[in-house]
Write a structure and sequence with these properties.
alpha+beta, 5-stranded mixed β-sheet, about 20% strand, elongated, single chain, 17 strands
């Protein structure tokens, strides 16, 4: 954050470094500086310039400049403590214990080693001189005053005790932290942490001080806000709408509200689809097949020379990336995903295509194909595979060539079925099947299905979906 402040002050954030600082670290530094009041719109504020002139770490500078009088003298003590090695032998997460040791040293009442405390006392004196602070360090302070001053250095680490777990705290930055089992801070409703150890789950509080909520409201009134929260409940498969009182990311109070704001509800439902996937939408099989027909045509365009077709990209990644554009508008006014009907989903997907393009899709990738028996059968499409036409073998007698779609350019994959609808063969070359495979199929199936025609010459036989007439 110190480098980020210098770069912002000198306007040199585009400088090239031999070893450039990580962009993520610089961004985090700018965020912290904005919280400290040192940056606004990535430009230094008057406070930011004063902080830079002070020549200390930005957190400490913000604290030293935020308070006056006796509190500034206390801030000098805290800055010296935070910069120094720990003066206590025993482990304690209470920063106040270290300040009390410093106060005892000044009154010659400290019984332990004094070398570290003497250095801290001298550093605090140096800070008072730098700031021209005429106030002497206090001999004692109210219980929460150390934390009340410390918040100006660590505004992102203000933390409130979790209502269901007294050792767990929610931080203002959205993370959570946990006290040690033997913590001296146990039971404090509000703390501010000067040192945390970040772990995979909750951070661990290494050093902190209790603070006063009333003082927090006085010093940072703008950070207490009322917001309406609308989120997706995956268990109920519905939206949960609540009015929340927050301090930054800390939820202080939460109450259910009636019908949520339609725009927020649409945002939450859209995010739900983003998380759950497209299968959460009310697809019908005809709509799934229409989507696959379009995807297949789009996939075949380069080989078919159909450059005039302006087909939308309906693959999963494209649809998910464009949810805000094509899905969100139709979700406005809904509070449940199942309120979206299949007809609405079909219309929103097809709505962007004019009638000429829709007719062209139907012509190039038809839903059904007529066969010699006089019946029509559904073509099953799946992008990346040949379109499948499943039909009983007897319905294709007399047909020499494999049926084709896309202006005759794409042969279907025939799934030839027995009279009972069981698979007999799969082919894209019907002519070869009649010549080489059918004789063996006829020999095997004729006895199994004697009521159905199995002519020796399939080329000239009459196609039919019915059994043979009685007596034949």
């Amino acid at each position: 954050s110190a480098l980020a402040l210098e770069l912002a002050t000198w306007g040199s954030d585009a400088l090239r470094f031999p070893d450039a600082p990580p962009s993520g670290a610089l961004a985090a530094g700018r965020d912290l500086l904005a919280r400290l009041g040192a940056l606004e719109s990535d430009r230094p504020t008057a406070l930011g310039r004063r902080m830079l002139a002070l020549g200390s770490a930005p957190r400490l500078a913000a604290m030293l400049l935020a308070v006056e009088g006796d509190e500034q003298a206390l801030a000098c003590d805290l800055a010296a403590l935070l910069e120094a090695r720990d003066p206590l032998r025993e482990r304690s997460d209470d920063l106040g214990a270290r300040w009390r040791a410093l106060a005892a040293f000044r009154q010659r009442r400290h019984s332990g080693p004094t070398g570290a405390l003497a250095a801290i006392d001298q550093a605090a004196r140096h800070w008072r001189q730098r700031l021209r602070c005429q106030h002497t360090p206090p001999a004692s302070v109210p219980g929460h005053l150390i934390g009340d001053v410390l918040v100006h250095a660590f505004p992102d680490r203000i933390a409130r005790q979790h209502p269901d777990d007294p050792r767990r705290y929610q931080l203002a930055n959205g993370r959570s932290a946990r006290l040690f089992d033997d913590s001296a801070l146990y039971g404090e409703p509000w703390i501010v942490a000067s040192e945390l150890r970040f772990e995979s789950g909750d951070a661990r509080v290494l050093r902190a001080a209790p603070m006063d909520e009333a003082r927090l409201r006085r010093d940072f009134p703008e950070r207490f806000v009322d917001t309406d929260s609308v989120r997706w409940d995956s268990t109920a498969r519905a939206l949960v709408a609540r009015r929340e009182r927050r301090f930054d990311a800390i939820v202080l109070d939460s109450r259910p509200i009636g019908r949520p704001d339609p725009e927020r509800a649409a945002d939450a439902l859209t995010q739900a689809v983003r998380e759950l996937g497209l299968d959460a939408l009310p697809w019908t099989e005809p709509l799934r097949q229409w989507r696959e027909r379009v995807r297949c045509l789009r996939d075949w365009l380069p080989d078919l020379g159909l450059s005039d077709l302006d087909l939308p990209d309906l693959a999963d990644p494209a649809l998910l990336a464009g949810l805000d554009h094509w899905l969100r508008p139709v979700l406005v006014g809904k509070t449940r995903l199942d309120a979206l009907t299949a007809d609405e989903l079909a219309e929103v997907l097809r709505g962007g295509l004019d009638w000429r393009l829709r007719r062209r899709i139907d012509a190039l990738a038809p839903e059904r194909l007529d066969v010699p028996s006089g019946r029509s059968h559904a073509v099953v499409y799946q992008c990346g595979s040949a379109p499948v036409l499943a039909v009983k073998l007897q319905e294709l007698f007399g047909l020499a060539e494999t049926p084709r779609i896309a202006d005759g350019r794409v042969p279907v994959l025939l799934h030839l079925l027995s009279p009972a609808g069981r698979p007999l063969a799969v082919t894209q070359d019907l002519r070869s099947f009649w010549s080489t495979v059918y004789p063996d199929v006829r020999k095997e199936m004729k006895g199994r299905y004697p009521k159905h025609p199995w002519p020796e010459d399939p080329w000239t036989a009459t196609a039919s979906h019915r059994a043979k007439p009685r007596g034949t």
